[in-house]
């Protein structure tokens, strides 16, 4: 039986490929648990400086496997409760990870697949692809941090529109709404995502980690608390190896080298 996900390393970039193409990469417990464990391992792998998530076959990810949840012995509620445990661990790891995570979207990203894409730092979407929250059309509420990330990307009113009407969102609209970073021709999402990941692999991960954390946490703190966190982060970055290299490079009027030798 084929592995439900594949992890491929290309120098400093790791690719996570969802591998249930016969189910449009919808995830059952085995698949999402394997993905969560892989994300945790890659987060602590010092040789990896960026991650690209993509899907095998015709879709990025159609979300949670409703057939799996619907046939769970204790009922669908218990099934989703179990599924969400690993799903949420994976989403949290992406959001707290001090490395860029990029979604390469083709076909459809729906339901949990939509939430995975939103959790990533950047999203590259093919011009023929579609986003859809999908949960509400199946009588469910949005999961996977979608209720946190969606209104912060598009605003509360538009987020509620997406939830209530659940209309498929084509690439041009996704770009204009700020849901994706870049739109590319069909068949080019993974290539462009990898190019972005390799470009980002040369930035300071100390700087990226602090900036990502500060931006994410800014919605939950007062202004006074936030700028104090910024002062802590700035001081920590300045004392780090990357910070010292950046300051020295500025003094020497050269480009800093943040990549470990």
Q: Mind explaining what this structure looks like?
A:
With 261 residues, the chain is α/β, with parallel strands linked by helices. It has two domains: 5-200, 2-enoyl-CoA Hydratase, Chain A, domain 1; 205-251. It is built from eleven helices and nine strands. The chain has helices spanning 29-43, 66-70, 76-96, 112-119, 146-154, 156-165, 171-176, 189-200, 205-217, 223-239, 241-251, and strands at residues 5-10, 13-18, 50-55, 101-105, 108-110, 122-126, 130-132, 169-170, 182-184. The strands form two sheets. A six-stranded mixed sheet has the order 1-2-3-4-6-9, sandwiched between helices. The chain has a three-stranded mixed sheet with strand order 5-7-8. β2 (13-18), α1 (29-43) and β3 form a beta-alpha-beta unit. α1 packs parallel to α3 and α9 runs antiparallel to α10 (223-239). The protein is globular and about 60 Å long. The relative contact order is 0.12.
Tell me the layout of helices and strands.
Elements: E1 5-10, E2 13-18, H1 29-43, E3 50-55, H2 66-70, H3 76-96, E4 101-105, E5 108-110, H4 112-119, E6 122-126, E7 130-132, H5 146-154, H6 156-165, E8 169-170, H7 171-176, E9 182-184, H8 189-200, H9 205-217, H10 223-239, H11 241-251
Parallel strand pairs: 2-3, 3-4, 4-6, 5-7, 6-9
Antiparallel strand pairs: 1-2, 7-8
